[in-house]
User: What shape does this take?
Amino acid sequence: MSRRPPSYRGVVFDLDGTLLDSMPLVLEGMAMVVESFRPRPNRAEVMDSLGGPSSACLRRLLGGRKHLAAALAAYTRFFSEHDRTTRLFRGARRLVRELHSAGIPLGLWTGRERSLTEVRLHSLALQDCFDVLICGDDLDSHKPDPEGLLRIVRRWDLPRAAVLFAGDSDQDFAGARAAGVPLVAIHHDRKIAAGLLKHPIAVVATPPEAFAWIRTAVLGGKRRPASTEH
Assistant: This one.
């Protein structure tokens, strides 16, 4: 499902599950660490817990703050040990660099803590491509509250209709809808609540499909020189 948009002048990405193929790691890590304190949650439960920093997600899974410190310490160790094994989705690096080279402002709106986000962007050599980051521990509010996305739009001084947001979680979809920002929704072949599909400008199954759509919408389909994809 898609319709061709007017000109877009800024692009905001989610990180995990959108640019970076890291959601299996996030879901497994959270399920594993809370299993010591409650029955192991299924994938849908962990997905529903997402939004904000790791501490907020784990607190939702635990049903409160009891055992939170131990679970958070275990998750942080697990994630730090394995995060560098995750890879960008095919086409992510090329698209980000093409947009950056074309002078399109780029933002990142992620539930990751800022320290983890900055370390990962540096390891991917993409830190200079994003002029604004809103991370999970930057604000008191978290996805699906739209404030993080709206802060990026206000910083660029652009109309909301001139900014694209690409995300893959229900929290991403609801946040974009609440912000009034056009959404490229990536569903990863999972079922999405009908109400969340009323807002997107495009709905695709995979990140590479989203990247192709964004390239056409923002750059007119032109491929610009970029380094070899990793």
Notes: The chain has two domains: 10-21+87-219, 23-85. The chain is about 40% helix and 10% strand. Residues 1-5, 223-230 have pLDDT under 50 and may be disordered. The first helix runs from residue 23 to 34.
